[in-house]
Fold this protein.
Amino acid sequence: MPAPPPAAPARSAARSASLGWATQAVVVAMGVVLTAGALLLHRAAGTFETSVRQQQAESLRIHVNTTHRAIDLWFATNKRFVERIAARPRLVGLTQRLLRGTPTPAKLAASPVLAEIREVLQAEIDVVDGRGIFILGPGDVSFASLRDANLGVENFLVREHPAQIRAAWSGATVAIPPVRSDVPLGGGSSRTGPVKDRSLFLAAPIRGAGGGVIAVLTVRYDARKTIDRILNDTERGFHFDAYAFDEGGRFVTEPRDADGRLRAATPRASTLWYLDARVAKMDAAGGPGEPTLLAQRAVSGGRGQAPGGYESYGGRRVIGAWAWNERLNLGLAAEVDEAAALEAFAEVYGYIRLLALAVMALSLGMAGFSLVHRHVTGRQERALRIDAMTGIACRGHFDERIAAACRAAGRDPSPLSLILLDVDAFKSFNDLYGHPAGDDCLRSIARCLERSCQKPADLAARYGGEEFAVLLPDTAAGAAGRVAEDLRRAIAGCAIPHRGSPASGVVTASLGVVTAEPRDLASGPTGLIERADRALYRAKASGRDAVIADAGGPATRLAA
């Protein structure tokens, strides 16, 4: 018989072919799934990147707005100081005496009345931390100044900002935007670098017995140091570069890297520090080019943010936000390096892609994406609530909490108390012991504030520089006064040596305490903060190391 057909080998081949097609189908299906997953993952990553950019831009916007409000608060505080000086009866009387007749500059310099005025002005300038003070008389002539060279000549501010001087003569207290003065700043502030002496001024009318304006008192401040201090006191966050600039795009403050080093804005130190769009870009004369789009929009009076990024003055890609401060006629900007801002995103995206390849399931990848995204967002939100140096709440978080407490006043019948605290003679402490010791001092005081918070709703915060705040919900005036007095004693009890303190040989603090009922909070926290600020000023004026309480009636001194 013939041999049977090789059925077994044929069936084996058929099975192999079938398995080959099945394998190919599975491979193709897996490829389609992975491709679809990769496309969806790419789209999701783009959404996540947009979210990260928007969060960064929003945090920058909050920083700029907080700085904007801090400048307004600085003006309001110093406005009151300058107005008080201008209203001093002794200064008014001496001014009227000096205005009699038309003395020459030489006679002015030799006048015993001018000597008395200088004695008054010198004492006042030490209180307001000014860099100069003078009085303009009729014809806008400087007839009282701490410098003989200024006497009897037209003041340069009349040429630079005539509208503000006219407003002061009309009876208003005004801020005069930063200008380059012809007189070097005192106190070692004169500079030789690209950012030279810039001064800003506050001018207040001096009124005679009949109420008419007889002269204008003008106090000079170091613009760079003043605005730098405000920028440093507001919460910056992660890798921020915050700076201020004038209407020409020139820096008023010095831009800095995240590590605090000065950053060169143009390749040549001899050029004006314009906000140049590209480092290598120069105009036809070899000078700086046009200001950046950020500067142009800010100078035109706009506010904005750019989550999509742009090229900054140093030729680098940044995410930024900006605003224009009409009061001081300068722009405020905050920027973060785009690559640094997206570093966390790039790392997270790599983890998500590896996870998607391992499990070959888009749903699991998206779940991981959501979890990591929530983690990154939470970490950024926590960082924005804490002051990096002291470890307690920052100014921005304090503003949010006190605003929320005012909004809840209609639902909560309990009183709200606030303590504002200022470290006495802290500038002198820094000058004597150095800034590292000053930082340690502020951290020690922050620990005292933390210990003073007995209830979960209490909040200790760094309000700015050497100023702190304690928010005490559901706390009556008496209890708030006791907290403030205990806090004053605790700070003095730290026994931090301070040989320059006018109050004692150790670091002390002055405190203002206020309490408000819910009906007084409906319009927001501004009134409560202003009352606390006035109480703090009285504590400072009463000799420091004191607590002044304002429970809605006359302020009372609790301790000294």
